[in-house]
Amino acid sequence: MNQYGMLSQLLDVVMALLLAPLLTGWLNQWRALLQNRSAPDLIQPYKVLHKLFFKESVIADHASPLFRMVPYLVFGCMTLASAIIPMLSTDLPLAPAADAIALVGLFAIARTFISLAAMDIGTAFGSLGARREMLIGFLAEPALLTVLFTSSLITRSTSLTSMVTSMSHNSFAIYPSLAFAGIAFVMVSLAENARIPVDNPATHLELTMIHEALILEYSGRHLALMEWAASLKLFAYSCIGLAIFFPWGVSTSASPLALMMALPVLVVKLAIGGALVAVIETLSAKMRIFRVPEFLATAFMLAVMGMLVHFLLGA
Amino acid sequence: MLVVLTVWLAIGTFGVLALHRFALVAKVFFPMGAAASLVLCVAAASAMGGAAEVAELPFGLPGLNFHLRLDSLSALFLMVLGGVTTGVSLFAAGYFRKGEGTPPGLLCLQYHLFLASMALVVLADDAYVFMVMWETMALSSFFLVTANHRIAEIRQAGYLYLLLAHVGAIAILLCFGVLQANSGDYTFNNMRAQHLSPFWASIAFLLALFGFGAKAGILPLHVWLPEAHPAAPSPVSALMSGVMLKTAVYGLLRVTFDLLSVQLWWWGVLLLSVGLLTALFGVVFSAVQVDMKRLLAYSSIENIGLIMVGMGLSLLFYAYHMSALAALALAAALYHVASHAAFKSLLFVCTGSVLHATGERNLGRLGGLIRYTPWVAWLSLIGALASAGLPPLGGFVSEWLLLQSFLFTPGLPNSFLNMLIPVVAAAIALIAALAGYTMVKFFGVIFLGRPREEKLAQAHDAGTLEKIGMLWLVAISILLGLMPSQILKAISPVIKQLSLFDLSPSIAANAWWLLAPISVARASYGPVIFLLGVAASCTLAYILVRLFYHGRLRRSAPWDCGYPLQNARMQDTAEGFGQPIRQIFEPFFRMERELPSPFDAQPRYRVLVEDPLWYWLYLPIARWVERISQWVGMLQKGRIAVYLLYSFLTLVALLLMAKQ
Amino acid sequence: MPNLVGQLINLLASILLILSFAMLSQRRILSLIRLFTFQGVTLVAATILLGYSTNQPHLYYSAALTQVLKVMVIPTLLHRLINHLNVRWDTETLINIPTTMMIGIILVIFSFNLAAPISSLSTSIARSTLGIALACVLLSFMMMITRAKAVPQVIGFLSMENGLFFSATAAVYGMPMVVELGIALDVLMGILILGVFMFQIRERFDSLDISHLEKLKED
Amino acid sequence: MNWLLLMLIIPFAGAGVLALYGGRERAPEVNSAFSFATFIAAAMLTSKVIADGPLYALERQFFIDPLNVFLVTLTAFVAWTTSLFSGPYMRIESDHGKMTPRRMRLYHSMYQLFTCAMLLALTTNNMGLLWVAMEGATLATVLLVSIYRTAASLEAAWKYFILCGVGIAQALFGTILLYLAADRVIGAGTGALLWTNLEQVKTHMEPTILSLAFVFLLVGYGTKVGLVPLHNWLPDAHAEGPTPISAVLSGLLLNVALYAVLRCKVLVDGALQNHMAGNMMIGFGLLSVLIAAFFLSRQKDVKRMFAYSSIEHMGLITFAFGIGGPIANFAGLLHMTVHSLIKSAIFFAVGHAVQKAGTQTMSRITGLLSISPTVGWGLMLGSLAILGMPPFGVFASEFLILTTAMRELPWATPLLLLALGVAFAAVFQRVQPMVFGETTAKPLQHPPALIPVFMHLGLGLMLGLYIPPYLVAWYQQAARMIGG
After folding, report:
1. I need a surface site. Which of B301, C76, D6, D254 has the fewest CB within 10 A?
2. Strand pairing partners for A251?
3. For the segment B160-210, what is each residue's pLDDT rounded down to a tens digit?
4. Is the pLDDT of residue A8 over 90?
5. Where are the transmembrane segments (chain A) (predicted)?
């Protein structure tokens, strides 16, 4: 560890915090574009956050301290997640604190607390959302883990930085197992980040909403933190996907020059990724909530298949 | 060590003498027992890693005194026992109330006898004392379970429990019969020296698996667990789930790794698959329960399954002489033993407090307790998080280690196994996630939301002693979560003793806050940093928000979606929360459903989820026994001529036999 | 001379066997008692004969004991019993007589077969009768199985005792005197108790049909 | 003073005295006094044996060796404690009108006679006298079983009499054959029936005769032991007789009969030099354990159930002796001791429970714990002990038997596992609601004598944890003697 390491770590976090809403905005722009709508501003998410932070926070009469605590906690979790995912550089002093499994655990904490907070108010919608969120979670989490397992079996490490390092520095090889894992990962990411076809981030329709039902009771700064955390999550997922499947361009040292090189590469990759997500969202239809388990089970199966393929073909 | 046991027994005896003096028993004896537990825990910790201490007591069979031996493995389980019972005894001191079932003094005797027998099971160094203590443990816990014997269900639960415990015990006994190899010497030392053929070794292993499995609650011998745990008083459930199940784990470890000189790879596969099935079954059932203690009982089944998976994996590696991996898997299993002991007993004592506060076990009638019993709620939140396997608590560490040991599988010599193991890893991930689901349900439905019943508003928080007990258990859970490398280093003598591989150098190679059993490049986990990271970002976010914006807050009624008639009963129920699981895992269950029709004046919805194994396995066995005893009954129809005929035929048959 | 005695004893043994068969087939209680008395007489004769030929005085005591007990006391007791109880009537057997006889013959063959190797080892001049004694025991056993009333069952029991006595006498010239006395005492006690018993049974059930005694069973 | 003869004379004299005065008000105490005197004599005898080793009396007609010394003490002890229990118990029965002074006289007298017969059977060296004593014990108990003069008790006594009478007749035939075999080696006379003499020449005796003799002896004495399928008298007699008698039948008489079988087995094993006797006993034992277990699971009457439990345990002991060898024999002897202690304790508890509830039907006896914790705990602990729960002694012997069987007769262990499991399920399922739950029973007029229950349970507990060294020595010597 050196001061460059600290620098790269700091840069990693700050960049994630700053760029995350931008990614959301970029995605919304693309969606609007694909759907022939006029798009909101690219920096619209920042405006929304600012507005929400400024507003007074209203909470239910009988909300417990847990309810007020959760937004900060979720935000904290997502921040830590972005700190340990190698976005620009693999030289991250914090990275040893959590490997891929712990990362999934981190997401699980956030999910658990959001669900608990939703149940705290005791309205029908809150607990409904909590149940659905946990349903998605318990199916998506193993699928995500399995995806990570596949790559960790290839790289013989569960540490994210080591994975990226060895992936990007191996001579270019085609891993059929990663193809399976990749599809599974995309499906899981869509589900986890409340995108179509699993959830629609843009509606408040009781029958279908999941994420929105969870944060229904939040307002003001709490809601802002939740929204920000959601963007961060999307950002983190995208970065994980990029780090595992397209690791090229991530710097392995923390020298400022390397970081400067890595940043544009990441932005480009994210831009392409965001656009692709928008395309998928536009092409697919929102599915019934009862179909979601099937969708996720498919993802899980694909991930397991990926792992099996790795063993069968040795690749 | 023996001093502590004597103290326990003495307390028990005093308890009987002070049969009905409640205050004395509760406020003096139980805290004294807790102090003894603490001493036990410390003594065991100091014995860890040292040379085995041997003692002989002048009891037992002729030529076979009670042999006791304290080695690292025993020390580990004694630490778990001492650590957990310190908290539970303190809790129990505040928990037991006057005038319920068994007189307090007797309860005190049974309780401390239970503790002492568990300790002696772990210390036993010959088959006889092991079996005696094993059954004493079953018996004393049976009496504790049936403390309130006026309720028929409790009696039924106790019956089922003791029956399975006894059948299991006979199997264990037979296992020792195999192990002693006809030498007539029942000491463990002799058993270690015997070289059994693979056939007999397998018989011994299977018997041990059956016997200890019946106590641990592996599939399909788990049926007593969800009955007995809810029936027992909560501190007892806590001990049974937290510690007693672990003695079964101990027994299986002792037999397979220590006493048997041969290990076959398929044992590992068997243990692995049984463990996996048990875990899956347990967690799925736990997710659909509506009784909070049953939910926890099924969750215990799940955790035992996970421990078995770890042991199975370790056994598999061990049989293939991959001792480093065997050590890792074993570390996972042992770590889970400790962390499960802590968080599950914590959760059980919490349900005890809830039960006292509300008199209600049914999740459908609870809710919103975080406002009335904040201590219980916040402390059980820690337990629930640990149980859900979330970082940075104890449950996560063991799951992490387990998954690591799966992922580090380098090609085993058996390609089939190579395929199998990653699939198991995926299944473990699924189980862990489902456990999270279950715990959200558990905590959310009990403590969050609005109270589903009027009377819940009168719920009172736990008393001082109860709080101290719970805090102690929480402290252990947190410690187990934050200090994995320290703790693993401390228990590495055990792992070395069993798997012949020392993990401590590779652990010690890293900073104290970092757990990296192989190397940092391969995998690492630093819970302290993890926690600090989250805490720092939370605090920072909080400060920054206050700094740049404001902290204004207004309270109002929650948004009702334009439907003002909503009330507390319309919250998601426990059944509702379990509905997706019921749907996805439908083949697992045996369900009876009563759905309302749109025309019902008073629509009712009812669902009853039952264990299909009960119908596939236990009831047929019961029917067969009944049928056979019908046939046997035909032998005795009261006619003396027929009886004489039996004698006559017997005589003739024996004469014919003797003539040859 | 020993040869003649041996033949005589064999003859008496055959008479015993025939008596056993007769009892097996006999329906009337009175005749049964009479046959039982004959059995006793035959036993006494055989014992005296053996005692005389082997010059063993204790066999005379034994014979006297038998005379008193089995020829005099027990038949008298039985007579009085059936008079009191008024059960002179025919008894029905549980299995019909021809079948019983068939089984009886098989039993005889079986016991001869069984006793043959032992008889050859015995030094007694009456050794060849051991098979007959065994057959008597088994036939009496058989009789107890097939009878449905209490009194014939008891007679079967006593006749079994006779068979045993005969075997003891024939094979080993009787048991030591202490034992012999003890056995006699027990038999006497037994018969007394039986008598008392039968009165009580009669009192309770108004009949000595043991089919009434089938209440205690697994149902 | 010759304690041995005194021990035999006291109960005999007691029988005489009580035959005359047994109907008086204080007769139960007198009965206990005689039993206590017997026990004292037995205890003195035992202490003498501990000090001096085996001894003979009356020209070797009586003897005490390691195989019978502990049985003698046990018998005298249980007979004494049972008489303590029987006092208040029979008083209550009289109050219920079930006993008249005449019947009391008969009861007390026969009780002493029965004790005497059993002690005689145990101490005699003469196989013929052994038979006589066994028959005497049978006759005495027949009268005791039928003492209530109810239809059921008469029927039970009748069956008992006929079945055991026929059985014991077989044993007599066996004894005659034994004498025949001995005659050829030792020569005629009383000496040829002395077990000690037979034991010395056992290897010279003719195997063909002895194998037949053993069959008759086994069937004969086995009927009294209650081995399936010769057991049919046992449940009836236990259920219908007075409870003190059930206690001594189960606790003592069965032991004595088994003791007789053992004596014979030693001789036969010596002559045959093969495992025939052992195999037969294994067969009987297994069959008894299995069948009795299934019988247990269909019982409604509490005393009947514990009678079947006795069959089961006798089967187990027979099985153990069948296996033979130092450990299994040791276990068998230990099991005999503990079973008789525990089973009689159970019958004591059951007796009072039945009196309290006014019925023997188990479904109508509930909640003993709430009306009388001592009876309840006595029954509960006793049942658990008899089911093989440690730390009671039954477990110790089952431990040894099962572990030995696992290697000697592995095929039998699944059957034993099944039988023990079924038995546990059956008995415990019935005992638990009797002890636990709400009560229907009423208090009694006389305070029940429960000291014997806990005395027995305490001894049973002690034997599970610690066996006195001289007892161990006896067991070991006896086990060696039984061989196998």
Report:
1. C76
2. A89
3. 999 999 999 999 999 998 888 878 788 888 888 888 889 999 999 999 999
4. no
5. 6-27, 69-88, 100-122, 134-154, 174-191, 234-251, 257-280, 292-313
Nearest CA in chain B to C150: B640
- Contact present, A154 and A175 (Cβ < 8 Å): yes
Domain count for chain C: 1
Chains touching C by CB (3 or more pairs below 8 Å): B, D
C-beta atoms of B659 and C142 within 8 A: no
Q: State the amino acid at position B194 in one-letter form.
A: Q
Using the structure block, give the residue that is written with the tokens 């049989």.
B319
Nearest-Cα residue of chain C relative to residue D179? C172
Q: Which of A63-77, B584-598, C186-200 has the highest mean pLDDT?
A: A63-77
Cβ count near B492 (within 10 Å): 24
Nearest CA in chain B to C153: B641
CA distance D463 to D451: 18
CB pairs under 8 A between B and D: 175
Q: What is the mean pLDDT of residues B608-630?
A: 87
Residue linked to tokens 């996972």: B332
Domain boundaries, chain A: 3-313
Residue C22 lies in a domain: yes
Tell me what the pLDDT averaged over chain D comes to.
Answer: 89
Helices (H), B320-359: 323-358
Distances B641 to B249, C144, C149, C171, D151 between C-alpha atoms, Å: 55, 7, 10, 30, 19
CB atoms within 10 A of CB A35: 11
Closest residue in D to C215 (Cα) is: D152
The answer as to whether C191 is a domain residue is yes
Pairwise CA distance, residues A205 & A216, whole Å: 11
Of C15, C103, C119, C138, which Cα lies nearest the Cα of D169?
C138
Contacts of C133 (CB under 8 A, 6+ apart): C13, C16, C115, C163, C164, C166, C167, C170, C171
Q: D-chain residues within 8 Å CB-CB of B168?
A: none
- The residue range of the domain holding C49 is 2-210
Is residue C217, in this structure, part of any structural domain at all? no
Most confident of A247-261, B635-649, C171-185: B635-649
CA distance D110 to A85: 93
Q: Which two tokens stand for residue A22?
A: 């931008």
Chain B residues within 8 angstroms (CB to CB) of chain C: 632-641, 644-645, 647-648, 651-652, 655, 659
Decide if B654 and D219 are in contact by the 8 Å CB cutoff.
yes
Specify if C43 maps to a domain: yes
Locus of tokens 């007189």: B103
Domain boundaries along the sequence of chain D: 275-484
- Using DSSP's 3-state secondary structure scheme, residue A161 falls into helix
Q: Calculate how close chain A gets to B615, using CA atoms only, in Å.
A: 29
Which residue of C58, C175, C194 is the best one to mutate when testing the D interface, meaning the one whose CB has the most D CBs within 10 A? Answer: C175
Of D155, D172, D177, the CB nearest to C213: D155
- Which of 90-149 (C) contact B at CB < 8 A? 94, 110, 114, 138, 141-142, 144-148
- Residues D400-439 pLDDT 10s: 999 888 888 889 999 999 999 999 999 999 998 888 887 7
Going by C-alpha positions, the residue among B656, B660, B580, B636 that lies closest to residue B287 is B580
Indicate the range of A103-112, B506-515, D137-146, D413-422 predicted with least confidence.
B506-515
Are the CB atoms for B578 and B288 separated by under 8 Å?
A: yes
Q: Which two tokens stand for residue C26?
A: 């006999």
Distance from CA of D165 to the nearest CA of B (A): 11
Does residue B632 contact residue D312 with C-beta atoms inside 8 Å?
no
| B in contact with C (at least 3 C-beta pairs within 8 A) | yes
Give residue D482's identity as a one-letter amino acid code: I
Dist CA B107 CA B103 (whole Å): 6
Q: Are strands B553-556 and B590-594 parallel, antiparallel or unpaired?
A: unpaired
Residue B399 corresponds to which tokens in the numbers above? 């799951």
